[in-house]
Design brief:
Blueprint lengths: L11 E2 L21 E2 L9 E6 L2 H9 L8 E3 L9 E2 L1 H5 L8 H7 L4 E3 L3 H18 L3 E5 L2 E5 L4 H4 L3 H15 L4 E6 L2 H8 L7 E3 L5 H6 L11 H9 L5 H5 L3 H8 L1 H10 L15 E12 L2 H21 L2 E12 L4 E12 L2 H12 L8 E13 L11 H20 L21 E5 L1
Helix pairs in contact: 11-12, 13-14
Length: 440
């Protein structure tokens, strides 16, 4: 076991993990310039890890011919950019940009359609490595998570900072992609830190510097401040976090309600949110954007069924259930319709999710053309509280028994081994054309 470091300002090398005896430009052991140092380096325990250009990185890993080429993940006539590698980003390509604009900005880019099953597998590999370090891992999406490494120093014989650097190195060597790490004393600043030096970044924000660090940054740095709210703040003459730091909490709450309280505390680096495990998720959903606009039940219903099955599989895999079913629609003119219904008891069954979603969808089939449909559940709980026997609706009980039998076949032979009548024979029309799964 190495002696505990006594000079955090000297730091350690991110490539060989060697502690540095004194501040230097290069590692005293391997000569690498990638040295991380900070006065609070060995005291901080909250981290945010974000995979760098995740989808693109996985595709480049699997196809070396793409390594030096600008790469866009997305596609389809009506498609948008899911993500882009950093070579494409330099040319102005951004996530959620319409594909035609992305190709105008970077006509030499290679476009690859997303393979969500593959990305999910890689994401699970990375997450399992995180969970080897601490039980306090809170996934935010397929490619990022918060970690709390409090109390792990004795177990790993390393301070959290060095443990995280070792993890980043392991992911790069074993998984073949890179990550950026943000380390701080709270979730807000850990997330901010992870964005500072992408790709392959390792940034630290300590307590002593937090207020000064935030002062000159734009208000959009604060979690929850999007474009609409940014415009509201700008009308009030507020564009930087430093301006928020001069305002009283009561004034901010009077102007903006509860979000004003959040502005007050986060602008001062105050964030009491804890890192929770995946059980703290509030909703599970799946949605798809079409290459064409559709208004007919013949097209929309099979896709709704397929999405319901995806949501159900994820709930069952995580021993979760939800009591509120939420339907989401986006019309051709980009107007969003959201409909929800609370059930008598929680469910993880695709049949109940789908039938509830179908009852919500039917009134919306009024000739409006839709470019997106999604289904999800919220008000999550443990699955042992879900789907009690229905003594009144015997048909529902028979469908539940049949679904569990289908689940056993899927577990043995794969998700496409058995299909229901809603999707069987529908081919691609029953499959999401560009899907997006979320656990929030």
């Amino acid at each position: 076991m190495e002696h505990a470091p006594n000079n955090p300002a000297a730091g350690f090398c991110r490539d060989c993990l060697e502690y540095q005896g004194q501040p230097s430009r290069r590692c005293r052991k391997c000569g690498s310039p990638r040295i991380v140092r900070h006065d609070e380096l060995y005291d901080l325990t909250v981290a945010h890890i974000d995979c760098d250009a995740f989808y693109a990185a996985v595709e480049k890993r699997d196809n070396p011919e793409l390594a030096d080429k600008p790469l866009i993940i997305g596609g389809g006539r009506r498609g948008v950019v899911s993500t882009a590698c950093y070579l494409a980003r330099i040319k102005g390509v951004r996530s959620a940009m319409p594909m035609f604009k992305a190709l105008e900005a970077c006509p030499e880019a290679v476009v690859v359609k997303p393979d969500m099953e593959k990305y999910s597998r890689v994401g699970r590999d990375v997450r399992s490595m995180m969970e080897e370090l601490t039980p306090l891992v809170q996934p935010i999406s397929i490619d990022e998570a918060f970690l709390d490494l409090s109390g792990t120093q004795t177990l790993h014989r390393n301070p959290p900072a060095r443990t995280l650097a070792a993890l980043a190195r392991r992911i790069e060597n074993e998984v073949g992609i890179t990550v950026s790490v943000g380390l701080s004393y709270c979730k807000f600043l850990a997330k901010v830190a992870s964005d500072l030096e992408k790709p392959r970044g390792f940034s630290v924000i300590g307590r002593a510097e937090a207020i000064d660090f935030l002062r000159e940054r734009p208000v959009t740095t604060i979690w929850g401040v999007g474009k609409a709210f940014e415009a509201t703040l700008k009308k009030d003459g507020v564009t930087t976090i430093g301006q928020l730091q001069t305002m009283e909490e009561s004034d901010l709450m009077r102007r903006y309600g509860l979000i004003g309280q959040r502005l007050f505390h986060l602008s001062r680096g105050q964030d009491s949110r804890q890192v929770h495990t995946r059980d703290s998720a509030k909703s599970v959903s799946s949605e798809t954007t079409f290459n064409h606009d559709y208004a007919d039940a013949e097209t929309l219903v099979p896709i709704l069924r397929s999405l319901s099955e995806k949501v159900s599989r994820r709930l069952k895999k995580n021993d979760m259930a939800g009591q509120t079913v939420v339907l989401k629609l986006k019309s051709a003119d980009f107007r969003i319709r959201t409909r929800n219904r609370r059930l008598d008891d929680p469910t993880c069954l695709a049949d109940r999710i789908f039938r509830t979603g179908l009852s919500l969808l039917s009134p919306e089939l009024d000739g409006t053309k839709y470019r997106l449909i999604g289904i999800g559940v919220s008000d999550l709980t443990q699955s042992d509280l879900a789907d009690p026997p229905d003594l009144i609706d015997e048909a529902a009980q028979r469908r539940a028994i049949a679904e569990r039998a289908i689940d056993r076949i899927h577990n043995r032979f794969g998700d496409n081994a058995v299909e229901t009548g809603y999707t069987f024979g529908k081919g691609r029309n029953a499959r999401p054309q560009r899907d997006n799964d979320a656990t929030d």
